[in-house]
């Protein structure tokens, strides 16, 4: 092996970074250097959504619609190829590639369409984008190797990534190419415990990158997107925000889970487990510092706020809770049976409030909870999560937060559960006001 795995960098580029022929060409400046690296690509932006629509049409047996959607997507790829390559042989290769993948998509129109086939269709986006970029590098005379993610990315029977399998098989795959330094592979796609084609769920290319970085104990994992890092507040809602330069893994995980769209929520875990720093960078502004996520960060500060909508609050009130033990366990068991995670929880002596972000089994859950006492629910709630490192300064933090929110009706407060997070629940209609107030009160913006 010519390079030691831990000197390799893993670079992941999202859909917009490969969203057009022009963007694909521009990538070369970021990946073409001599350093050993593994480049993980998403599908071109819009492609996975289009593939989801095609699969949906096939489920509904709307073959004409599936055909129209497939034709339209193929046409788009046709123009990408025409614009991307200037040499005849690359053009031919690109055309051949498209013909094969779209021929494959069309082969599903006739019979029964199942979840497995849907996953095969969803995998086409990343297979296309990586091959197109690889051919482009070839045309430029930059030697790259196309690594088939389906040979090493795997989830187990619980749909969790199998890091040991990934490590072993990725290393074996790399060892087939001694002397090579630039590898391109597909984000998002994998095989499942049965060896079938599967995926890491929407937005899962980040997860691919952190799994690869963790598997190789790589030097750094870079997630390239189109904003300049994780911001201190939601830039879609609040006018003035700034990129946070350093975050700990815990802070980043809280922010990703509670709404910062820039990062896939579970993707922090593999990097954290093996202590591999993750850097969030901006393709449009490569020299900007971005956000570095690592084990260490300066203490005692408030780093960012994030908001998560679509929350339902459930309140259970019962005289039986008074001085009783086992009440909460009984309540939690109901949620466990329906595999519904609880996000926030607050209790008083006679009542407990908790929140869920998943309404799928809510009716059944509410029915069972009714056995414990009177149950009320509030929909359209938002969790606002204030993230930082609050070890020594706790008192001051609480005062600042509640002073900032003094005019906002607060439905629940969760404080002290971790040193990294204070969460409040507000009605979604008050979210904007709350985020603006926090931006002023906590960041003077
Ligand atoms: N292409 C997939 C999606 O759109 C995976 C990703 O982009 O991360 O969800
Ligand atoms: Mg993404």
Report on this model:
- Helix 2 (47-59) runs antiparallel to helix 3 (63-84).
- The chain contains 14 helices and 16 strands.
- The strands form three sheets. Strands 3-4-2-1-7-9-10-8 form an eight-stranded mixed beta sheet, sandwiched between helices. It has a six-stranded antiparallel beta sheet with strand order 12-13-11-14-16-15, sandwiched between helices. Strands 5-6 form a two-stranded antiparallel ribbon.
- The chain is α/β, with parallel strands linked by helices and 445 residues long.
- Helix 7 links the parallel strand 3 (145-147) and strand 4 (182-186).
- It binds aspartic acid and magnesium ion.
Q: What is shown here, in short?
A:
By secondary structure, this protein is an alpha/beta fold. It has 14 helices and 16 strands.
């Amino acid at each position: 092996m010519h390079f030691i795995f831990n000197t390799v960098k893993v670079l992941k580029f999202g859909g917009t970074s490969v969203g057009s022929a022009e963007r694909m060409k521009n990538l070369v400046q970021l990946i073409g250097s001599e350093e050993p690296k593994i480049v993980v690509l998403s599908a071109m932006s819009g492609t996975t959504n289009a593939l989801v629509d095609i699969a949906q049409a096939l489920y509904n047996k709307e073959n004409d619609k599936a055909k129209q959607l497939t034709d339209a997507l193929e046409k788009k790829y046709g123009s990408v190829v025409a614009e991307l390559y200037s040499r005849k042989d690359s053009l031919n290769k690109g055309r051949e590639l498209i013909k094969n993948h779209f021929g494959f998509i069309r082969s599903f129109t006739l019979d029964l369409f199942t979840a497995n086939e849907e996953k095969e269709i969803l995998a086409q986006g990343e297979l296309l984008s990586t091959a197109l970029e690889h051919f482009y590098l070839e045309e430029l005379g930059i030697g790259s190797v196309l690594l088939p993610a389906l040979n090493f990315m795997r989830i187990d029977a619980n749909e969790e990534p199998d890091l040991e399998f990934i490590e072993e098989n990725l290393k074996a795959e790399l060892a087939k190419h001694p002397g090579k330094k630039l590898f391109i592979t597909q984000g998002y796609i994998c095989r499942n415990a049965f060896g079938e084609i599967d995926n890491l769920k929407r937005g899962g290319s980040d997860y691919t990158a952190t799994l690869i970085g963790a598997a190789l104990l790589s030097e750094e994992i870079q997630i390239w997107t189109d904003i300049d890092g994780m911001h201190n507040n939601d830039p879609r809602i609040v006018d003035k925000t700034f990129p946070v330069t350093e975050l700990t893994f815990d802070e980043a995980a809280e922010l990703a889970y509670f709404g910062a769209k820039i990062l896939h929520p579970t993707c922090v875990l593999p990097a954290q487990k093996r202590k591999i720093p993750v850097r969030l960078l901006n393709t449009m502004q490569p020299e900007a510092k971005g956000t570095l996520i690592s084990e260490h960060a300066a203490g005692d500060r408030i780093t960012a706020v994030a908001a998560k909508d679509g929350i339902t609050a459930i309140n259970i009130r019962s005289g039986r809770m008074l001085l009783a033990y086992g009440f909460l366990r009984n309540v939690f068991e109901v949620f466990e049976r329906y595999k519904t995670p609880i996000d926030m929880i607050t209790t008083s002596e006679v009542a407990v409030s908790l929140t869920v972000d998943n309404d799928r089994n809510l009716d059944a859950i509410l029915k069972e909870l009714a056995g414990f006492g009177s149950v009320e629910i509030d929909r359209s709630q938002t969790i606002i999560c204030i993230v930082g490192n609050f070890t020594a300064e706790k008192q001051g933090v609480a005062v600042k937060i509640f002073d900032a929110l003094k005019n906002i009706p607060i439905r629940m407060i969760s404080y002290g559960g971790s040193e990294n997070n204070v969460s409040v629940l507000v009605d979604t209609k008050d979210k904007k006001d709350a985020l603006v107030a926090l931006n002023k009160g906590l960041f003077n913006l």
